[in-house]
């Protein structure tokens, strides 16, 4: 795509990155076929190609409008279009640049600013956990729309205390420990069963995605630097001991963000090298399965005990299948453990509508996508729906009575019953 950037962007890092991305776009429109918002709205400007044109116009000097902002806001950042694109257009990075520029030029209404501030600061606050516990204690009394955002509290179980020579770091996250603490505990137990010790750096917090996608990129970069500082003593110990072998993510939304630290901090002279090392070490939990499954089976066999749900349908989060380009691993290795795992026969590539805070900011579109996704998932008559990201899990559970869980919880239950 021929581009003539305005002088204010031409020689800036963001301008150079955007121009390189724009020049790869060939206007083919394949991306519209896999864009969830285009499928719902049928508006060119609510698909990737249209949004690319909007961003291009702004970077060439055209003043953005409130309508420009709304079209960019409606994007789920699912990156399905990147999977579809034959030219390798890095749409996600271009959208980040476009949103940042538009945010500085178009003032949002007071109500929108307040909600976005509350999400940025509230979800990452130490007060979020006690607030969630309070909500869970009175969950039955909450209005239906609010109750859908407050999952029932479950006992996370015991965190393993055995030390192992093999060690990994786990990002606890900002929302997951309060909403679904059993996911982190289950992760530590299944790794322990394979002879791997799970460590959590106490000062590591939000991965940065919440602020980044709510147009506070400065705050997001601060979150990233804080995590790097918290992890670095375990990555490069000064006492000569070996560092951790991986930084494990059991929320694919966090994983795609941390794997992007190298890009986000590439111009930071103090953090660029460390960020690159962190991104290299980061692994989604499913990437460890080729190593983990043989260890589990050698110890426990490969027969599922009675009482465990066997018929499973897997919803691969967009951040896993499109953001991290990881497909097929969860289904294959759960199958090797004896589960019968399927994907939805239709639209397994499409977003469920969760997309971080999207379900709060765009509730109408989000619910339509959730209900559409659940129709396809429940057509498989599963005993349980599994996914790999807390946002997808809680969003889908709000629309169905079928249990929706993280796949690692099934493995944890299998190990506990053998």
Structural write-up:
Helix content is 51%, strand content 7%. The protein is globular and about 65 Å long. It has 24 helices and 8 strands. The chain has helices at 7-10, 13-22, 36-41, 48-59, 66-73, 80-84, 91-105, 110-123, 128-137, 144-147, 176-179, 182-193, 209-212, 217-235, 252-258, 261-264, 272-281, 289-300, 318-323, 329-336, 358-361, 363-378, 390-397, 407-417, and strands at residues 166-170, 196-199, 246-249, 282-284, 311-314, 340-343, 384-387, 404-406. The relative contact order is 0.10. Helix 23 links the parallel strand 7 and strand 8. The mean pLDDT is 93. With 418 residues, it is of the alpha/beta class. Strands 2-1-3-4 form a 4-stranded parallel β-sheet. Strands 6-5-7-8 form a 4-stranded parallel β-sheet, with helices on both faces.
Protein traits:
alpha/beta, four-stranded parallel beta sheet, 418 residues, 8 strands
What is the distance, rounded to the nearest whole angstrom, between the alpha carbons of the first and last residues? 58 Å
Radius of gyration: 21 Å
* Cα shape: globular
Class computed from helices, strands and strand pairing: alpha/beta
Task: Report the strand count.
Answer: 8
Regions with little confidence, pLDDT below 50 for 5+ residues: none
Estimated share of beta-strand residues:
5-15%
What's the rounded overall pLDDT mean?
A: 93
Characterize the main sheet: 4 strands, parallel
Strand order of the main beta sheet, please? 2-1-3-4
């Amino acid at each position: 795509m021929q581009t003539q950037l305005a002088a204010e962007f031409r020689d800036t890092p963001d301008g150079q990155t955007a121009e390189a991305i724009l020049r790869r776009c060939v206007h083919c429109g394949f991306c519209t076929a896999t864009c969830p918002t285009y499928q719902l709205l049928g508006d060119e400007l609510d698909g990737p190609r249209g949004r690319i044109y909007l961003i291009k116009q702004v970077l060439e000097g055209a003043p953005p409008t409130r309508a420009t902002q709304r079209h960019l806001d409606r994007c789920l950042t699912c990156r399905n279009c990147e999977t579809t694109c034959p030219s390798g257009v890095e749409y996600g990075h271009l959208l980040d640049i476009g949103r940042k520029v538009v945010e500085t030029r178009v003032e949002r209404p007071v109500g929108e600013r307040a909600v976005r501030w509350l999400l940025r600061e509230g979800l990452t606050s130490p007060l979020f956990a006690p607030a969630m516990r309070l909500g869970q204690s009175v969950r039955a009394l909450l209005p239906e729309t609010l109750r859908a955002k407050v999952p029932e509290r479950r006992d996370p179980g015991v965190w393993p205390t055995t030390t192992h020579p093999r060690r990994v770091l786990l990002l606890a996250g900002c929302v997951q420990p309060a909403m679904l603490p059993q996911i982190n505990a289950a992760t530590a137990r299944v790794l322990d069963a394979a002879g791997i010790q799970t460590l959590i750096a106490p000062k590591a917090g939000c991965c940065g995605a919440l602020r980044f996608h709510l147009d506070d990129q400065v705050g997001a970069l601060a979150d990233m630097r804080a995590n790097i500082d918290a992890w670095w003593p375990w990555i490069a110990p000064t006492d000569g001991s070996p560092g951790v072998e991986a930084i494990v993510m059991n929320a694919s939304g966090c994983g795609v963000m941390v794997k992007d630290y190298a890009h986000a901090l590439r111009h930071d002279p103090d953090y660029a090298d460390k960020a690159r090392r962190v991104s290299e070490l980061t692994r989604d939990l499913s990437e460890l399965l080729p190593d983990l499954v043989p260890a589990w089976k050698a110890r426990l066999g490969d027969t599922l005990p009675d009482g465990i749900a066997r018929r499973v349908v897997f919803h691969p989060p967009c951040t896993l299948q499109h953001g991290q380009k990881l497909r097929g691993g969860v289904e294959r290795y759960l199958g090797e453990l004896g589960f019968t795992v399927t994907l939805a026969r239709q639209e397994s590539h499409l977003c469920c509508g969760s997309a971080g805070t999207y379900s709060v900011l765009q509730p109408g579109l989000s619910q339509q996508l959730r209900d559409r996704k659940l129709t396809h998932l429940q057509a498989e008559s599963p005993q349980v729906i599994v996914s790999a990201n807390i946002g997808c899990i809680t969003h889908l559970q709000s629309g169905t009575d079928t249990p929706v869980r993280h796949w690692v919880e099934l493995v944890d239950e299998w190990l506990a019953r053998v």
